[in-house]
Amino acid sequence: MWASTLSSEAYLGLTIHYVDENWTLQRFLLNIIPFKTRHTGINMATVINNVLCEFNLVSKALALTTDNESAMLVCG
C-alpha cells in the first residue's frame, strides 16, 4: 500500500512470487490498484481476492505476505 502525501491518493501493489519448474524464483508485478476506501485489513483482503479471481489465481495462492501494519489484522 502506498499513499501520496500531496494528493492523498492511495494504491495497492500486488506482486507474485513463485518457484518455477526449474526451481528458479520468479516474481512480477500483477497489478497496481487505486485504493479509494479505508485502509482496513478487510478492505485490502477484498481487493486482493478480487484481483486473484480476475486472474484465476485463487486456487493457486498459497500464502499472502504483508507488512506488520495493525490494519492488516483480519479476524474471522
From TrEMBL:
The Gene Ontology terms for molecular function here are: zinc ion binding
Respond yes or no to whether keyword Repeat is given for this record.
no
**The keyword Transport appears for this protein:** no
Q: Name one GO cellular component term.
A: nucleus
Q: Which SUPFAM superfamilies match?
A: Ribonuclease H-like
Say where the protein is mainly found: nucleus
The alphabetical list of record keywords is:
Metal-binding, Nucleus, Zinc, Zinc-finger
Q: Where is this protein localized, as stated in its record?
A: Nucleus
Indicate what this protein is called per its UniProt record.
HAT C-terminal dimerisation domain-containing protein
Q: Which organism is it from?
A: Rhizophagus clarus
